[in-house]
Design goal:
Elements (H helix, E strand, L loop, with lengths): L1 H22 L11 H24 L1
């Protein structure tokens, strides 16, 4: 009894994942922030961090 329940769940899972993969768009769009924007943000944050470190060392 328990084994058939497990195999039924496995079949349902495989069918559900198959439906998800079949409905997936062929060319997916990139979500989130564009890469050049993230590089600029990281550079600004690193610069601010260095400025704060220099100010802390001078005090």
């Amino acid at each position: 009894m328990a084994v058939t329940g497990i195999t039924d769940q496995m079949m349902q899972y495989s069918k559900a994942t198959e439906v998800i993969y079949n409905n997936k768009p062929k060319k997916g769009k990139a979500y989130g922030i564009n890469r050049p924007d993230t590089k600029n943000i990281v550079a600004i944050l690193a610069g601010l961090f260095l400025i704060f470190v220099v100010i802390a060392q001078l005090m």
